[in-house]
Design goal:
- The chain has 506 residues and is an alpha+beta fold.
- It folds into two domains: 1-114 and 309-358, 2-Layer Sandwich (Uridine Diphospho-n-acetylenolpyruvylglucosamine Reductase, domain 2); 120-304 and 362-472, Cytochrome p450 (Orthogonal Bundle).
- The protein is 40% helix and 9% strand.
- The chain has 18 helices and 13 strands.
- The chain has a six-stranded mixed β-sheet. A three-stranded antiparallel β-sheet has the order 5-13-10. Strands 7-8 form a two-stranded antiparallel ribbon.
- Helix 7 packs parallel to helix 17 (373-390), helix 10 (193-201) crosses helix 11 (209-229) and helix 13 crosses helix 17.
- The longest helix is centred in the middle third of the chain and has 32 residues, at 248-279.
- It is globular.
- The protein binds protoporphyrin IX containing FE.
């Protein structure tokens, strides 16, 4: 799960380019480009054109005009991700790689170059590697993580709450997931601005990407060496002691994978949820009515602005058919997450509320479906909730139309989200140990019950915002439909939610 980001910022098409330039959406052969300014500035428009021209599976061109299939249909994406015998995750099957038409230094190499990690594995090897990841993640103390998220969020808010303005992408969304992941991994002391900057940079194809990658891998190597001799209750130690007997290199590579997969996606999700909460009239109206919860905003965002818009990819094992298209052995396919989430067959009305419906493909599907989705949701739920609690009058300080996006073939995210609010006092934050993350007993409480946000006060009043620990949470919908192979039993009962809310400190 890495992203190349070769076209930053590249969101707004400039002067009209010559026809053969990638800035044109259509290549000379009549195929549309899935890269370049046109694809990045209006992906939804591109999906519409591709659907009209080709149906649910469309031929597209990747960087260098290399052909691939973009799967647009919801059911076609589900079929592809759930049928690894036909659609492998092993990029070494790519015919274009084998015949040399894609060079190893292709701009997308960081995302397609095969590595010995679970992302590129199929079958028994995938089960072994992914089993180590999911078993280790199952040992994480869910309530402990949520308490940490709440505390980290308040620490971040403390850094700007006196100022009355902030860019909550740079000051909040891009930091919170890294703080949480460092604590989960067992290296809270490694969290700093440099690590955040390195994690952002290492997958963006910049001149400094190699040095940034070395910085991240250096921190992970130090952690793995420490934990090999001195285990602690943290993810690194659990991966090392897992019966799958991963080597130190495998553990480091999987920690790197988890960090990349978790950081970028969760930072995008937080930023997207904040934008929706601040700008979408549906949320504004419902928030003032007292029914809207942050988890519902998160779920709607996962439909409308999925943090990963597409995943590259799958590679056809043999000749086959998908969505009426003849796929040849070795062809490359992209899981079209954002396209599937707006497939007219599942969402004929895009403005309709998706409340309670988790059938979106934001976490993909099949054996590679994101194993960290509950953690990602919890970071976004608790983090956004804590921010709104501290700054309840927060509003955009620019016109919505001024917001800028960065896009690439795998994701699209906000450049910044400037907000203003009444300056408020810093809050004292209790200092529990940061590394104790192991689950003390069987739990099933990833679901977050967030209080409804009250209507923002008109103008900037002088009233002190309610403290983070204030009661007043309103009930939240109980549970959600199960996701096969991912979700456990039903959500906890209301009483348990109340107890757990108290336990979490909010
Ligand atoms: C809201 C945030 C997140 C989103 C939207 C997201 C989405 C995804 C997607 C789309 C995939 C690709 C599945 C495929 O290849 O078909 C994936 C894989 C993965 N994600 Fe996440 N993810 C998120 C957060 C996390 C977190 C917090 C973790 C870890 C703590 C995580 C760990 C992983 C891992 C290890 C994989 C590879 C799984 C495999 O190949 O078997 N993700 N994620």
């Amino acid at each position: 799960m890495t992203t190349p980001f070769h076209h930053e910022p590249g969101t707004v098409p400039g002067p009209v380019p010559p026809p053969e330039c990638p800035a044109h959406g259509m290549a000379p052969g009549g195929l549309r480009r899935f890269y370049g300014p046109e694809a990045e500035s209006d992906p939804a428009g591109l999906y519409d054109k591709l659907r009209a021209e080709h149906g649910t599976v469309a031929p597209v061109l990747l960087h260098g005009d290399v052909p691939a299939w973009l799967v647009l249909g919801h059911s076609e994406n589900l079929h592809m991700t759930r049928t690894p015998s036909q659609f492998s995750r092993d990029s070494r099957r790519w015919r274009a790689l084998q015949d040399g038409s894609v060079a190893p230094d292709h701009p997308l190499a960081p995302i397609f170059t095969w590595q010995p990690v679970c992302v590129f594995a199929d079958g028994a090897n995938h089960e072994r590697l992914r089993g180590a990841v999911t078993d280790s993640m199952a040992r994480i103390d869910t309530r402990g993580v949520r308490r940490h998220v709440n505390r980290f969020s308040n620490r971040l808010v403390n850094d700007f709450c006196l100022q009355g303005t902030a860019d909550v992408v740079a000051r909040f969304a891009e930091h919170l997931p890294m703080m949480v992941m460092c604590a989960i991994f067992g290296m809270p002391e490694e969290y700093d601005d440099r690590l955040v900057q390195a994690a952002r940079d290492m997958t963006r194809g910049t001149e400094t990407a190699v040095a940034s990658n070395a910085h991240v891998v250096g921190a992970l190597n130090r952690l793995v060496q420490r934990r090999r001799t001195d285990p602690e209750p943290d993810l690194a130690s659990w991966l090392l002691e897992h019966p799958a007997s991963l080597t130190d290199v495998e553990v480091t590579e999987h920690l790197r994978l988890i960090l990349i997969a978790a950081y970028e996606s969760t930072a995008n999700l937080i930023a997207n949820v904040l934008r929706m909460v601040l700008t979408d009239p549906r949320f504004r109206a419902r928030l003032s009515g007292g029914h809207m919860t942050v988890p519902e905003a998160v779920e709607q965002t996962l439909w409308d602005e999925p943090p990963f818009t597409a995943v590259f990819g799958r590679w056809a094992v043999g000749d086959t058919e998908l969505g009426g298209q003849q796929i040849r052995a070795g062809d490359a396919l992209l899981v079209g997450i954002a396209a599937a989430n707006t497939d007219p067959h599942v969402r004929p009305d895009l403005t309709a509320d998706m409340e309670g419906n988790r059938a979106h493909l934001a976490f993909s599907g099949g054996p590679h479906e994101c194993p960290g989705q509950d953690i990602g949701r919890a970071i976004a739920d608790v983090g956004v909730d804590a921010l709104l609690m501290r700054l309840p009058d927060m509003e955009l300080s620019v016109e919505e139309s001024e917001l800028r996006w960065i896009g690439n073939i795998m994701s699209r995210h906000l450049v910044e989200l400037p907000v203003k609010f009444a300056p408020s006092a810093q809050q004292e934050i209790d200092a529990d140990p940061l590394t104790v993350m192991s689950r003390p007993w069987a739990q099933n409480d990833w679901e977050v019950s967030s209080p409804a946000r009250s209507a923002p006060a008109p103008g900037y009043g002088t009233e002190v915002p309610p403290p983070v620990h204030a009661p007043g949470a309103s009930p939240q919908r109980d549970g959600a439909p199960a996701i096969p192979g991912q979700r456990g039993a039903a959500a906890p009962a209301r009483l348990w939610q109340a107890v757990s809310r108290w336990w979490n400190g909010y």
